[in-house]
Amino acid sequence: MNGQIASCTIATVALESMQAHARSAAPLEACGLLLGHAGSIRAAISTKNVAPHPERSFEIDPAALLREHREARGHGEAVIGHYHSHPNGSLEPSKTDAARAVEDGQLWIIVSAAGVCAWQAVAGGALHGRFAPVELVVV
């Protein structure tokens, strides 16, 4: 994704999928990939969290990441970001998230019992100098 966006549409099925995955993974962090086009999320694909300490961090399975990039290209889509859950309830990316984020415009969606919030990894973002808020519009 290129350029900062203020809002993004998300398919209801993608939103519900992320929320169900986060609930089923608790108290561990759930994670997955977002498929679609710039400004539009069509699907959320759950992946295995391979982090050494999944109760407090996440790492998307590298094999799943490569596979989903290939499959998305084959369908004329792209991996436009990822999601992960915060079992502690926070809807903001943590300082650890910020340290790991690449300022490439990818979407970061945080899922918790408090709701769902979207962010974009950008240089000079309002949060931790790395993330800009993105409004999610459910379609």
Automatic annotation (TrEMBL):
Gene3D superfamilies: Cytidine Deaminase, domain 2
GO terms assigned for molecular function: metalloexopeptidase activity; zinc ion binding
Keyword tRNA-binding (UniProt): no
InterPro entries, A to Z: JAB_dom_prok, JAMM/MPN+_dom, MPN, VirAsm_ModProt
Protein name stated in the entry: M67 family peptidase
Gene Ontology BP, a term: proteolysis
MPN domain: residues covered: 8-137
Keywords linked to the UniProt accession: Hydrolase, Metal-binding, Metalloprotease, Protease, Zinc
